[in-house]
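Quick note —
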Amino acid sequence: MSRRHRSPFTPLNALYSRTGRMEAKGCAKPAVWKEARRYFYWATRARVARSNALGLLAAASPSQSREYLKQLLNDVSGVDEKSDHRAAVEALENLDLSSTVAQLKGEHIVQQLLGDRKSLIDGFVRLADCLSEDEKATVLAALKNSNTNTSPGPSHSRTFFYFFADNCVVL
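Predicted structure written out below.
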């Protein structure tokens, strides 16, 4: 645009770009500018803490959806995305996710193992070779007890897997 056409629009643009006008139209929230830096500091820190926690959970169980992991983090931490940023930072930075990460890793491994039954059985045979006679008897008793239960759920396979994971190392 030439200078002749641009000049009438400059005051008009300045009029519509004011914060008061944007607040009146609902495009912007009224803000106390003295607190703006503090607000953005805590908002950024909360976002980084949430992102770090979600990264840990996603690394433990890559097959889970992001929405599931967000809901799990909200349940474990007791804060959600609408919580006060400062409270969220304190809760997320002091949160111990080690048990949740271990549980997610175990569930992910069980899902992978249950996907291919032949590999699962071959792996159990290899694992059984490194157990002592007492440990084999304990595993056999656990298998017999799980067969008498009429509703074999994932908790039995998890218990069985955790027993093997605690007692044997597979190379």
